[in-house]
């Protein structure tokens, strides 16, 4: 009898042990499932475009195409105002086109600040995202261009300006401005004759030719300039004569190195030192007020791993107020959208006036023309 009782107790204990072991396994499985579910939820929240902890939208640009300080400030403002549900934006600059191109070989941003010509080229390769915004803020100069408001959102136009060192010009008895390109070149020759130094440098002589010839109603092909065309010969001879008399510099100077410099307007971005003033580059006598311009803006790239709503939210915010015109002026660009406020920038003389010509340019051909003309100046000097 005692033996049967002991056996029953042992079996009971075994049953209880097995049941407890079963319950422990069940509890561990449930805990593991809960952990997996929690991890999945955290991962979803991290990758969700509406989460502030998500990977940011990446905006790439070439340093010098806009003001680094102004762009970073604008993006910081968006990230701060967007709140927890907004996808943050980060910016990364590249030294030049070559560095940007190298980065594209292994990666691709979500947003790209580039020229309109570059955006059209990228669209032909089917790498841009297309969507519509409700914004209708661009001037008549750009509103009808291909892709505007669809995959390219214009910021402003880069033009050629004349930077003048006012102290150096006053010391030499030079005027503060010139009515024509010819008048500027004549002054440069007189200055060289009296001082033995050049008056003018240019960051791109190809841009000087393009602007002068457009004003005269002629085309300019830097890859194959028409040496028999009357207008081309006129501008070439005027610059060559000035170089021969020492008025032009072949060196790639910086603003302020010489009394005058013909430069891209983005050189004004971030503000000028008090010693320099800026005005629109003088045009040839008898020419029109038309000026060549490079349209810069933001293109949205197609990204399969990104919810397009995040990019749309940033673009809508950017176009929803006058952020674009402020960023344009701060970057030395002619605004092409609704103005934020009054400004004394000479670039506003070209705002919505129908005097800008947006043409696709071959950067490689222009750089080669520029290098060749600088060699010509060296020989003439």
Task: Give a topology summary.
Layout: H1 2-47, E1 57-62, H2 68-82, E2 89-94, H3 97-104, E3 111-115, H4 116-124, E4 152-158, E5 160-165, H5 166-171, H6 181-195, E6 200-202, H7 205-215, H8 230-244, E7 260-264, E8 276-280, E9 291-300, H9 308-320, H10 323-330, E10 334-335, E11 356-358, H11 363-380
Parallel strand pairs: 1-2, 1-3, 6-7, 9-11
Antiparallel strand pairs: 3-9, 4-9, 4-10, 5-7, 5-8
Helix pairs in contact: 6-8, 8-11
Structural notes for this entry:
The chain has 381 residues and is an alpha/beta fold. The protein has two domains: 57-157 and 294-345, Periplasmic binding protein-like II (D-Maltodextrin-Binding Protein, domain 2); 160-293 and 362-380, 3-Layer(aba) Sandwich (D-Maltodextrin-Binding Protein, domain 2). The chain is built from eleven helices and eleven strands. α2 links the parallel β1 and β2. α6 (181-195) packs parallel to α8 (230-244) and α8 crosses α11 (363-380). The longest helix is centred in the N-terminal third of the chain and has 46 residues, at 2-47. The N and C termini lie far apart (127 Å).
